[in-house]
Amino acid sequence: MSIIDPAIAVQRLPRHIAIVMDGNGRWAEARHRPRSFGHHEGVKAVRATVEACIRRHVPTLTLFAFSSENWKRPQEEVGTLMELFMKAIDREVDELVANGVALRFVGDRSAFAPALRERMDHSECKRPAQTRLNLNIAANYGGRWDIVQAARCIAAGVARGDIDADTIDESLFDAHVSLADLPPLDLFIRTGGEHRVSNFLLWQLAYAELWFSDVLWPDFDAAALDAALADYARRERRYGRTGQQLRHPA
Ligand code: FPP
To answer: Which helix or strand (DSSP H or E) is residue 103 part of?
Structure first.
């Protein structure tokens, strides 16, 4: 049974959730299985979470699949993850698109093998007839990289004469970071018990609500998502104002 009150959900659902899917390795180690087993089981949790977001009418989901720092992992584990991404794309994309999922990859994909890059490009070209969920997969992504690529893009605009340096402000920057065309990030979730953001969506996190869960990613499911949604629905988002101002707008 769902623990989310549907009456609250309609009014106070996040329009954009981002998740750091942590805990695959520990989940596998607890079962005396290789870490790769945890990553494979993690794909099932991805599927469950995507389905739950569609059913609850959350329009945007961004998943941290591979950080720019994850290259430091043992080569074997990096290889497993690359193979997993390729297989997941081959297996899942057509069904995702048929179910109204618009897929996008964010991050510096130049470091990936050509075969993976091609799959990413092709799957982004497959657009659903009607979009029910924007699913963004952050791969070789880092929040600092994102800010730097926005700065480079703006600097190039200034050099070309398209942007007047005096007009550079937060809204211009906002328009140049990843996912600028999608709803602002409302809810950040991290599983696996660690309380840090690990260089994910640093700019976009400015006013997001944070939810940390001890659940290891392969165990994350619709009920775990509902716990985060129920808590989010109770939050008062003040954006610097007082609670009084929110309740009695001038
Ligand atoms: C972090 O857990 C998880 C990752 C670095 C990989 C995430 C990948 C998946 C969930 C599977 C594939 C995803 C897609 C989108 C197809 P960890 O390995 O750091 O776990 P630990 O903290 O327990 O060691």
So the answer is: strand 101-106
- Most informative mutation of 217, 220, 221 for ligand 1 (most atoms within 8 A of CB): 217
* 101-135 per-position pLDDT tens digit: 999 999 999 999 999 999 999 999 999 999 999 99
pLDDT digits (tens, 9 = 90+) for 36-62: 999 999 999 999 999 999 999 999 999
Which CATH number characterizes residue 198's domain? 3.40.1180.10
Report the alpha-carbon distance of residue 57 to residue 103 in Å, rounded.
16
Task: Report the relative pairing of strands 133-141 and 101-106 from DSSP bridges.
Answer: parallel
Which of 5, 70, 121, 164 is catalytic? The answer is 70
Does residue 13 belong to any structural domain of this protein? yes
User: Does residue 154 lie within any of the structural domains?
Assistant: no
70 as an active site residue: the answer is yes
CB neighbour list of residue 88: distance below 8 Å, 6 or more residues apart = 43, 46
Best probe residue, ligand 1, of 19, 20, 21, 77 (max atoms within 8 Å of C-beta): 21
Amino acid at site 15: R
Q: How many domains does the chain have?
A: 1
Look up the domain containing 108 and give its range. 6-142+184-235
In this prediction the pTM is 0.94
Let me know if residue 89 belongs to a domain.
yes
Is 248 a domain residue?
Answer: no
> What confidence category does residue 250 fall into, taking pLDDT thresholds of 50, 70 and 90?
confident
Which residues form the pocket of ligand 1, taking CB atoms under 6 Å from any ligand atom? 21-26, 39, 42-43, 46, 63, 65, 70, 81, 84-85, 88, 137, 192, 217
